[in-house]
Amino acid sequence: MAGTVSKPIVVGVDRSSAARAALEWALDEALLRDCAVRAVVVWSVDLAKEPPWQPVERIRARHARHLEDTIAEVTRGRERLPRIVAEVLEATPALGLIEASKDAAMLVVARRSGRWVRRALLGSVSSACVKHAGVPVVVVPPVLEEPGAADEWLIDEQLPAPGASAGA
């Protein structure tokens, strides 16, 4: 459609290898769709990690710098790139990404590896986005080179069920 601007793809970015893979996927998809990518980092003050006296602007600037570094790393050596808009939002990750994606074509998030108990107790950004976003959500699996990323489920389907004999 001539004159029609495609909606952008919103992708959640943090410093993980899984998020870098999600950004790579979003860039490739944006080239196919001829649309922009909004690379979004969502942050909030974490008193367990941040000194309470540190200025919020300093924290925001650090997140913006990390986002720019990640974009530079992922785009290095690519022949073609879509337009990329870097965005830094202060919010909880899932709510920030859901809000940022309201006018997007889709939301792309990474599924981080981790123990199922931790994910069940604390929840998951990707799960919350899938459940609550008003746009299609693409969940990019973790990078296999990341320690523990190959299989986050602790069940081995090749083992016999409890109580069953091994020869059955």
Would you count the extended β strands for me? 5
Q: N- to C-terminal separation?
A: 62 Å
Unreliably modeled segments = 148-164
Quickly give the structural class.
alpha/beta
Q: How big a fraction of the residues is strand?
A: 15-25%
How many whole angstroms does the radius of gyration measure? 19 Å
**What is the spatial order of strands in the main beta sheet?**
3-2-1-4-5
Q: How is the main sheet built?
A: 5 strands, parallel
**How many H/I helical runs?**
5
Helical amount: 25-40%
Question: Outline, from the CA principal axes?
Answer: globular
Return the string of H and E elements. EHEHEHEHHE
| Overall average residue pLDDT | 81
Task: Walk me through what this model shows.
- The chain has 168 residues and is α/β, with parallel strands linked by helices.
- It has helices at residues 17-33, 56-75, 93-100, 116-122, 125-132; strands at residues 9-12, 37-43, 84-90, 106-110, 137-140.
- A 5-stranded parallel sheet has the order 3-2-1-4-5, with helices on both faces.
- The radius of gyration is 19 Å and the shape is globular.
- The protein starts with 8 loop residues before the first strand and ends in a 28-residue tail after the last strand.
